[in-house]
Input
Amino acid sequence: QKEVEQNSGPLSVPEGAIASLNCTYSDRGSQSFFWYRQYSGKSPELIMFIYSNGDKEDGRFTAQLNKASQYVSLLIRDSQPSDSATYLCAAEMNRDDKIIFGKGTRLHILP
Amino acid sequence: DGGITQSPKYLFRKEGQNVTLSCEQNLNHDAMYWYRQDPGQGLRLIYYSQIVNDFQKGDIAEGYSVSREKKESFPLTVTSAQKNPTAFYLCASSIPTGYYHSNQPQHFGDGTRLSIL
Output
């Protein structure tokens, strides 16, 4: 069974600090990875996607991918209270348009 | 503005009743998906469609049915065979993987909350 694993949290981070969210995946053949943010009661919204090993930066967000360790992370710099949400990690399986979602990590930014 | 529209926002089902959730997109995406989300859980794939007039079962297709007669529309019917339908249902769309070398991001509608009366 192909899986994406995340720590459910909650992860509490002081405002202004760096929040680090982690995700591991079971399928060594996965090539595409996605981070979504989901506010309570709302639908997921895409934050970042990454295909290559290394870092990808977009504003305050950095996605990191290590295929050898089957590990994806999301860093949020200068955390704001509005970043408090559940973050879902997803990985593609078999290049057939399907992606598998983790159960999400709840992030709480402390004012 | 391009996007995905799901309706209704809230839906109540009586026992033995079939209900249909609507999903329409104007993003010109070929691939569309239906997910179910239960409290504290991730998204589980119900059905997906990569092209008009074709669709595949996801991980939890039992008790659900879909159709894909138009590129823009991918309605989901929750049948009476689905004994535990209370959940948050999410529709998504994307450009199919076949156009690129990697899976493309999925974009979501606002969701439909289904409850049993």
Observations:
- Chain B touches chain A through 24 residues (CB under 8 Å).
